[in-house]
Each structure stands twice: as structure tokens, then as C-alpha cells.
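Thread amino acids onto this structure.
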């Protein structure tokens, strides 16, 4: 369970984020990183930092997305994929001993060099003698363990990952039985929010969704446009199980802490039974 503390400038500045400052006493969070509690920090680069276990967590990288879509007849531009470089930049700021990817590591597990290359790059930049990489399998990762074994890559694949007080899943499968007080981190939904000025201008931005028992991460992939979340309509059984009460929007290089859902629907007043005239 996330034991929340009142956000203070000192608490927000504690994690080694590259950009600091900002007001953390109200809804506007610290620039770059925000300590939700002493145990959990969210980073505007769509990552979660768990200082006690020195774990860095991201979700939904969808490596090989453009190549997969081209193979299916959608001729997307083959722009350089900076996914692994962005993860490496995070590792320069957080002293992680474990990196956890919460599923949909790849967009489609095909035994081709176009997929092997980014996975080798991922392992080469992340895995060290003092740091391990854990890949939680998602619904897009069917066949990925076989590919990794064929390419002899030093990485562990699991359906779920745990350590005391925490459970890491993708989100496409029902949760296992859990002890009381466990916090669940998941992906799968690609959550985002639409923020606007109430007149004519709006923008869709990635967002973390939270409550005291769960954190739903935005997609790390830049190809993922994001699904606008309004408090319901989630795809997977994990997100459907939790009533998220808070959002942290990734707005440029700033984090914006907001209540969730942004617009709370109030029930309609009961209809009075009146005699017909």
C-alpha cells in the first residue's frame, strides 16, 4: 500500500531527477519528478522509481512497432526509435539495480533481425553486473521468450514479478491472490488525459493513474497515442478492478497532479412519481 506523505519541496527533490523545482504543495507538481510517497516517485519521462528496492519501472515499450506495421501493409516511416536511449537516460539519473518492463515489450515477437537488434541494444545498455532486467510478458509478447533464448539474451521473462509489498503485472490477466497491503503496478491501458482551456485549445497527454493500492503507468513508447481515460472503460481486468482517485499528467517537462476522474459524474436526482394530469 502506498503510504502517502504530504508533498514538500524536499520530498520532491529527493530522487535524482535531472530537472527540479516547482511548487509541490498544491496540484502543480515538481518539474521532472514527484514523490507520491517515500516509497514511490513518478517521473515525467513516463517511469516510476522505487527507492527502497532501487527499481526503475516502465510499461509498454512496443519495440519493433514500425517494422511490424509495415509488414502488415501500413507503410509507417522508419524513423529512429529512441526508446532504449530514453531508458538509458533515466538510468543515468536513478541508481537502479533492477529495471522492470511491464509487458508489451515488443509489438510482435517475430524471429527477425529487425526485432533482435533493438532487444540486443536494450540488454546491452541495461544489463550490467550490478543491474538486472526483468521483462513482464504482455499480450503482445507471445513468442518473445523463445526469441530471447534463440538470441541468447541475458534477460528474465515472467508473467508477474514480486517483492515484499509490490506486485508488477502487465494488466491483461486477472490478478493472482494477494496479501493485504500489496501495491500493484501495471500497464496495458496506455492512459492519457485531455487537458484544455475550456474554450478551444486542448491537448492529449500521457498520465499516471493512482490510488492507495495501485499505479497504472502510461506507455513508454512514443508510438502509443494513448487512450483518454475518464474514470472507466478500461480494457484489462487489472485496471477494471481499481477505482483510481488521482492522476499525474505528463505535460511537456512538467508533472500536473489532478483529481481523477477530471469530471465526476453526479447521479441524476430521482424522478418523482406524480399523478398524471
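Threaded sequence (277 positions):
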Amino acid at each position: 500500500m502506498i503510504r502517502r506523505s504530504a508533498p514538500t519541496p524536499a520530498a520532491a527533490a529527493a530522487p535524482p531527477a535531472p530537472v527540479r523545482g516547482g511548487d509541490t504543495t498544491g496540484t502543480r507538481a515538481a518539474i521532472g519528478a514527484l514523490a507520491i510517497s517515500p516509497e514511490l516517485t513518478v517521473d515525467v519521462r513516463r517511469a516510476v522509481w522505487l527507492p527502497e528496492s532501487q527499481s526503475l519501472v516502465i510499461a509498454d515499450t512496443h519495440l519493433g512497432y514500425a517494422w511490424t506495421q509495415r509488414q502488415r501493409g501500413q507503410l509507417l516511416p522508419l524513423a529512429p526509435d529512441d526508446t532504449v536511449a530514453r531508458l538509458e537516460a533515466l538510468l543515468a539519473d536513478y541508481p537502479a539495480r533492477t529495471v522492470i518492463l511491464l509487458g508489451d515489450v515488443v509489438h510482435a515477437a517475430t524471429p527477425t533481425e529487425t526485432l533482435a537488434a533493438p532487444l540486443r541494444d536494450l540488454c546491452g545498455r541495461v544489463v550490467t553486473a550490478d543491474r538486472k532486467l526483468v521483462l513482464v510478458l504482455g499480450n503482445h509478447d507471445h513468442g518473445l521468450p523463445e526469441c530471447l533464448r534463440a538470441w541468447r539474451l541475458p534477460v528474465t521473462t515472467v508473467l508477474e514479478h514480486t517483492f515484499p509489498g509490490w506486485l508488477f503485472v502487465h494488466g491483461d490477466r486477472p490478478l493472482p491472490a494477494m496479501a493485504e497491503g500489496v501495491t500493484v503496478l501495471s500497464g496495458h491501458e496506455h492512459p492519457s488525459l485531455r487537458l484544455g482551456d475550456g474554450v478551444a485549445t486542448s491537448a492529449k497527454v500521457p498520465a499516471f493513474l493512482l490510488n492507495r493500492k495501485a499505479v497504472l503507468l502510461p506507455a513508454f513508447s512514443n508510438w502509443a497515442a494513448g487512450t483518454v481515460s475518464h474514470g472507466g472503460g478500461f480494457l484489462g481486468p487489472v485496471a477494471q478492478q481499481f477505482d483510481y482517485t488521482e492522476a499525474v499528467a505528463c505535460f511537456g517537462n512538467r508533472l500536473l497532479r489532478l483529481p481523477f476522474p477530471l469530471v465526476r459524474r453526479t447521479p441524476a436526482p430521482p424522478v418523482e412519481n406524480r399523478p398524471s394530469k
